[in-house]
Amino acid sequence: MSPYDETTSAVSSSADGEDRAVEAALRPKDLGEFIGQERVREQLSLVLQAARHRAATPDHVLLSGPPGLGKTTLSMIIAAEMNAPIRITSGPAIQHAGDLAAILSSLTEGEVLFLDEIHRMSRPAEEMLYMAMEDFRVDVIVGKGPGATAIPLELPPFTLVGATTRAGLLPPPLRDRFGFTGHMEFYAPVELERVIHRSARLLDVRIDTAGAAEIAGRSRGTPRIANRLLRRVRDFAQVRHDGEVTREIAAAALGVYEVDERGLDRLDRAVLQALLKLFGGGPVGLSTLAVAVGEESETVEEVAEPFLVREGLLARTPRGRIATAAAWQHLGLTPPPAPPHTSLPAQQDLFGDAAEG
Ligand code: ADP
Prior knowledge:
The protein folds into three domains: 37-183, Rossmann fold; 189-256, Helicase, Ruva Protein, domain 3 (Orthogonal Bundle), CATH 1.10.8; 266-356, Arc Repressor Mutant, subunit A (Orthogonal Bundle), CATH 1.10.10. The chain has 15 helices and nine strands. By secondary structure, it is of the alpha/beta class. The structure holds adenosine-5'-diphosphate. Adenosine-5'-diphosphate (ADP) is lined by residues 23, 26-28, 34-37, 67-73, 195, 223-224, 227. DNA binds at residues 316, 321.
């Protein structure tokens, strides 16, 4: 098997070049258009309304959750709802405090600064951010060694929107400086169906209810994946059929892209198959499992396992990885009979009259 390349999987949750080009056109523009995430939407709506009421800049906002759930979209909505410009950058792009100082000092009043992957910022930049968030001020260091001096620089009030895949990775002093934290959840299938219908309308794709449901069920609770699968299904419908997306066409198209009815891709299934067929359902160590599928341990652990665990198909135990009953069922295989010592003794045995039966 060729090494698995996450960027070519139709169900990868990170954005590829095509996603970035299309996503701009598909992003909801205001809170009313944003589907699902009811709790975050309501909380955020209150924060924004209160800020508008006071004619003030909204508190800093932290959005946490896996990729592709709408964190960038929400940051743009915050700016749009406040009628403010937005600047977009990311933690890995800010390696030196000077990089951050340059961005902060060029912000205009009320501007929204979206900082994606905020947990990956360098330490000195992070410390500069504390002061900027709290006092709207940074100290710019001029010169080196004993002659270095800190020149305080006033900043206009701005709103920082930080995004992170895990809020727990943020140092508490940074976390505490956000006035509001929104935890983004995976989307329910019915919500993804709405996302798909909306995107289909914008992309001028004809799709029926069953077609949208079929795509939603394979989208791993993630709008970015739903939008991508919709585009692949659209291609198939246009090339091989008359362009309309039905359940049969969606299923056939996603079969071509090796995305099964539960959203598992080639690697996910290879891992499950090895676990079931070669190791009888486990327990088996991660590195052994990785060798069996011809992948690096990290790829199996970071790319395949989180979704398999979330789906209740695989469990991580201190003795190794084990398959659940649902995994056997999903691959249409029969689990081996339980070893004798784990089965309950038959009723007759308890009374010592088993021989008669
Ligand atoms: P993140 O920043 O969390 O990785 P994005 O905001 O870039 O995710 O969203 C990815 C794609 O999914 C975008 O094209 C966006 O249009 C779509 N999307 C995300 N959330 C929603 C939603 N609630 N309603 C409709 N589309 C959404």
